TrEMBL record:
Pfam families from the UniProt entry: Sua5_yciO_yrdC
Official protein name in the record: Threonylcarbamoyl-AMP synthase
NCBIfam families tied to this protein: L-threonylcarbamoyladenylate synthase (TIGR00057)
InterPro entries assigned: DHBP_synth_RibB-like_a/b_dom (IPR017945), Sua5-like_dom (IPR006070), SUA5_domain (IPR052532)
Gene3D superfamilies: DHBP synthase (3.90.870.10)
Signal sequence extent: none
Highest taxon listed in the record's lineage: Bacteria
Domain YrdC-like: residue ranges: 14-200
Amino acid sequence: MSLRFEVHPQNPQPRLLKQAADLLRGGDVLAVPTDSSYALVCRLDDKAAAEQLRRLRGIDEKHLLTLLCRDLSELANYARVDNRQYRLLKLGTPGPYTFILDATKEVPRRVSHPSRRTIGLRVPDHQVTQDLLAQFGEPLLATTLIAPGDTLPMNDVDEILERFGKLLPGIIDAGACPMEPTTVLDMTDDEPVLLRQGRGELSRLGL
């Protein structure tokens, strides 16, 4: 059964987040709340954990995963960002936006796009996620928690446990969060390309 870490959504208990971070360091996959929905997360450099994350989500290696970062400075370690891109990123972080950018060598080839060497990155605007990232000390590999065969992301902890309780080592329970995926923008061309309209409004980015 999953370990359930019940935390306060605005002031999460550091002791519980440390326990969750220890699970991640040990190679486990966790479900965590974000500003768009719950997500599955694991260590970036753990191949077995990334494979388990894909199995839980029901996706193959062609599905682009996302890196959750604490802030723009951390994001810049994993993606090549020019001044034009940085200005737009600054408008959308933290927030419910995923930016597709050219990956640096810090990103393992197996988690970037198989032919383009791109990676999705975002800075979530959720206190629990931010505190977990700070406790963990590095970005987390993530994918929206959508059950295999479903189309909508999950945001109810009891439903997540009912569906994944025997498969998922742990879940950080901060109550319900939004139930809409992020807006996805491809930033690798001269102009941003909208790949998915989600919770993030384009007007915030001046688009």
